[in-house]
Amino acid sequence: MKVKRFDSAESYDAPNHHGVVGLRLQGFEEGGPKNQWMGLSQFLPGGGAGPDSTPIEKVYFIVEGEMTVIIDNVETILAKYDSCTIPAGETRKIENRTNNTCTMLVVMPYPPGAK
Question: Residues 28, 35, 68, 82: is their CA dihedral positive or negative?
């Protein structure tokens, strides 16, 4: 078992994101998970990402707050404890349209050649 304490999580910058602080909870480290990594994103009001896509799927889980996910001009609001899977290659945009911080877990496989 590999334990990583929240106090030791390191921040990272995600491409095409704004108004967010990302913390890497697991992954990209010796002894960590072999197939995927997990981050905690804290989006300020007005924060978000995209539109863009990745060649790998991702899972979003809302810990606190709300996030609007926009795919093909269809808007879906995810609230506390809601989750979704964004398939590889699907273009998405996410926006925190509230006045509260949205805290979201993100789980993704490693990019090809990254691990």
Answer: negative
> Tens digit of pLDDT per residue, the chain (115 long)?
999 999 999 999 999 999 999 999 999 999 999 999 999 999 999 999 999 999 999 999 999 999 999 999 999 999 999 999 999 999 999 999 999 999 999 999 998 877 6
As for how many domains the chain has, the answer is 1
To which residue do tokens 């896509």 refer? 53
DSSP lists the bridge partners of residue 102 as 43
Residue 8 DSSP class:
G
Residue 18 lies in a domain: yes
Domain of residue 37: give its range. Answer: 8-109
Amino acid at 92: R
Supply the DSSP symbol for 110.
Answer: P
- Give me the amino acid identity at 76: T
Do 106 and 23 touch, CB atoms closer than 8 A?
Answer: no
Q: What is the pTM of this model?
A: 0.94
The count of residues in the chain is 115
